[in-house]
Amino acid sequence: MSDKLKVLLIRGMLYYDGVTSVEYEWIKTLRDRVDYDYVLLDPDKSIPEKEAAVEAFGVHVYPLRYSGRNSFESHRNRVAVVDQFLKKHHYDVVHIDTDLPSRYDMAKVARENGVKRVIVHSHNALQHLHGIQKLPGFVTYERRQIARYATDLAACSKEAAAWLFNPKDQGRVRIIHNGISRDRYVFSEEKRQATREELGLTADQLLLGNIGRLADQKNQLFLVDIFNELVKSKPQAHLLLIGNGEKEADLRAKIKDLGLEDKVTMILSTDRIPDYLFAMDAFVMPSLYEGLPVTLLEAQTTGLPCVISDVISSEMDFEGLIFRESLQADPAAWAKLLAQVASQASGQDRRKFASQLTKLGYDNQESAEQVYQMYLGK
Q1: Sheet holding 93-98, edge to edge
Q2: Please, are residues 325 and 334 in contact by the beta-carbon 8 Å criterion?
Q3: pTM of the complete model beyond 0.85
Q4: Closest to 222 measured CA to CA, from 332, 364, 360, 365
Q5: What is the reported pLDDT for 2?
Q6: Per-residue model confidence as pLDDT tens digits over 229-266
Q7: Separation between Cα atoms, residue 321 and residue 245, nearest integer Å
Q8: In 3D, which of 166, 178, 169, 138 has the Cα closest to residue 291?
Q9: E-strand stretches of the chain
């Protein structure tokens, strides 16, 4: 009989997002001490390659489907399918990674099925409410239920903690930084040149990049406006967008309307994130909100200067690489800052920045160990 902990991760889907990347690092790092499984509540949106990556470490992925005519019925049916699952499978820990206050129901059903350690882990600093959550006091109620049923509260940043948990529960929250594998992101000039050749770029062309789900939160439609301003002064510039999502059609339409089709490359899915970061000259993140974005951590580790919105946490800033602009500023202001930042960074030794990852506490080994200690209740 294995003496490893059995841990169930509850997620909506496995995706090309920061949370999936972070969980992958936990699974890889802790595989000698933890047997992980997944329950996916929105499995039809999951990326098969991501499922295959975790299954390669012996992880079982269970797709659970439910539906309802309204939010109340969907909530009830979600609880029912997870309840049935937990009656058939035993776990020492249920770990719920989410930015949704409504996921208190997963903590509740786990406790009702005798799971001794139930963790609700916040990974985003969401600021927008929808539907019934707009009712006065409703989100406060959901947060109160999280605190009631979860044995442990965790968050990737202070902002993420403030979003998902009520003020009086902040003292219970463990801040566990999202970690990445440093060695994968140490800058390589050879890989930079090879990737730029693949993209059809000359050595002197300015390449801007953004990685993230194509969604309102990530604000890529505004980024296209920024880029449209930039090409007025730098007509050879190119934009690389990596990710997919519900805004893909809108983005493609806007790019076409602005006549930028030859200047923008969209890559919907890839496992070569480091290579594309090496190829970039600046990283742009005009997000409306973030918890602690893993892609920003990855970009900085490769030595990329990053122009980001002023709402993003400063907890993970590398010295000399972060430049903030207001979301209230117009695209021309963003474009001007980008041009300045890229020019100043040209010729800089990018390899030197990777050492800041460990100093700031974002190495995956350290983060995974903190997660394991949480599983043990220490």
Answers
A1: 60-63, 34-40, 5-11, 93-98, 117-122, 152-155, 173-175
A2: yes
A3: no
A4: 332
A5: 67
A6: 999 999 999 999 999 889 999 999 999 999 999 999 99
A7: 28
A8: 178
A9: 5-11, 34-40, 60-63, 93-98, 117-122, 152-155, 173-175, 207-211, 238-242, 264-267, 282-285, 306-309, 322-325
